[in-house]
Amino acid sequence: MRKKLSTSVLGAGLAVAALFAATGSAQGHGYVDSPASRSTLCGNGSVQNCGQIEWEAWSVEGYKGFPGRGPADGKICAGGVGRFSELDDPRGGKWPATKVNSGQNYAFTWRMVARHATTDFRYYITKDGYDPSKPLTRADLEPQPLLTVPFGGRMPDWTVTHSGVLPQKSGKHLILGVWTVDNTDNAFYSCSDVQF
Ligand SMILES: [Cu+2]
Fold it and tell me: Higher pLDDT residue, 3 or 148?
């Protein structure tokens, strides 16, 4: 019994060590889990043939300053990271979408694997008439975020939940979560498909 316990503790330690070895200390570390992001769906196997993102849902890290700076149009969902380009592929508009309602008070949730001092979290939504079969561009998004949560450089928790009221929309839309790190040049980008 004693031996079994220590073996499993050792196993857990090795798993953690392997995780850090695989991701590195300077890499990206968080993703939107609710509404389910493309990273979530690829990471849990709901969507197949996603490439590298299947193994590091939390690593969609690009330059901050969106929309003035940051990833180029058509590369927003992958944060401009080439090895995650599957996230930008609209898959003919067939990404699974979380059912939501206009006017609903929605609990947006990020899962963190490593935490960073934070400037803010922002959530953008696509305009009426959005075509889910095309890669996301800035012009597809409402100019103002539906929700901005300033953090003033504070450290977020391991799970971060923000509530925001969803606007009047119909049909399929995309919500872009942007987590801006305070003390680096980077931000994390996370695309979630939703169905009103
Ligand atoms: Cu990180």
Answer: 148
pLDDT for 51-105, tens place per residue? 999 999 999 999 999 999 999 999 999 999 999 999 999 999 999 999 999 999 9
CA of 129 to the centre of ligand 1 (A): 35
The domain total for the chain is 1
Q: Who contacts 170 (Cβ-Cβ below 8 Å, separation ≥6)?
A: 102, 128, 196
Helix or strand (DSSP H, E) at 107: strand 105-112
Q: Which two tokens stand for residue 160?
A: 């971060």
Strand order in the sheet with 30-34: 30-34, 105-112, 159-165
Residue 65 lies in a domain: yes
Kindly report the number of other CB atoms within 10 A of residue 163's CB atom: 11
> Residue 105 C-alpha to ligand 1 middle, in angstroms?
29
DSSP-assigned letter for residue 171: S
Amino acid (one-letter) located at 25:
S
191 is in which domain, residue-wise?
28-195
Cα-to-centroid distance, 30 and ligand 1 (Å): 7
CB 157 within 8 A of CB 30: no
Write the CATH number for 117: 2.70.50.50
CA 185 / ligand 1 centre spacing (Å):
12
Distance 175 CA to ligand 1 centre (A): 21
